[in-house]
Each structure stands twice: as structure tokens, then as C-alpha cells.
Write a structure and sequence with these properties.
Belongs to the AHA1 family. The termini are far apart. The protein has a seven-stranded antiparallel β-sheet with strand order 1-7-6-5-4-3-2. The chain has helices at 15-23, 25-31, 115-141; strands spanning 4-11, 36-38, 45-51, 57-68, 72-79, 88-96, 101-108. The protein is 30% helix and 39% strand.
Length: 142
Amino acid sequence: MKDQIELSITVRGTVAEIWRALTDSDDIENWWSDDVVIEPRVGGKFKEAWVDDEGNKGLASGKVLSLQEKKNITFTWREKDWPKEAQTECTFSIEDQGPKRVLTVKHVGWGSLPDKSRAKIMKDFEVGWGYHLQELKSYLDD
């Protein structure tokens, strides 16, 4: 079974605009949510509060493990209702290809989740990341 989700988009925005969209709260709320915080420094916090289709409140949290300004940022991701030992890692990477930029999100560590729920959770995350990347693309390309 696969243990990672990796999705990429091509955007017209500059590297600086993409970086700001990933790390600035005012920008993040334009494509992700106003309830998402990513503090762009090692040890900085990541937090996403959300509500599912049934009205249940969720909370994801983690901390920034590494970053190279305007290149990549990696943070841990853990949902409040996951088993204690379950934790994943998410990396946003920006690749400047001259006339365009490629932004990739890579979410790994799914093996830490229980076998019985892993496939569904990964599918939900793959759909979610696809949606958020398209929102980000729309925001940056406008």
C-alpha cells in the first residue's frame, strides 16, 4: 500500500507570491481557510481547525520541522482524533522553471495510522489536497 500523497500544480505567480501564499495568514485564508496557521520558522506551529460535512469539528496540528525560504517548508500533521502514535509530515516545495513555477505538496507517514482506516483517510486527504491546490492556483493565477 502506498505511503504518500504527492500532487503538483503549475502556477503563474512568482516564487515570492507563492511563498507568501503558503506562509502568510492573510494569504492562506484566501485559498485554504482563515482557521489555518503556519508559522514559517523551525519549531513554528501549524494548526487547522475545520468542520466536516456532518458538522463535526476537527483540529489538525503540528510544528514546522524545516524550511528553506521561498523553496520549501515541512511540518508535522496530526488530527486530534488519530491514535497517539499517528503523525504525518507535509512538505510544500516550489520549483522555479523559468516562465512557470511548480508547487508540489507531498504528505507522507501514513503507515503510522491504523490499517483499517488508512486507505479512507488517505483518499480524503488526496481529495482535500487536490481541492486546496486548485484553490491556490486560482488565487495565484488571478
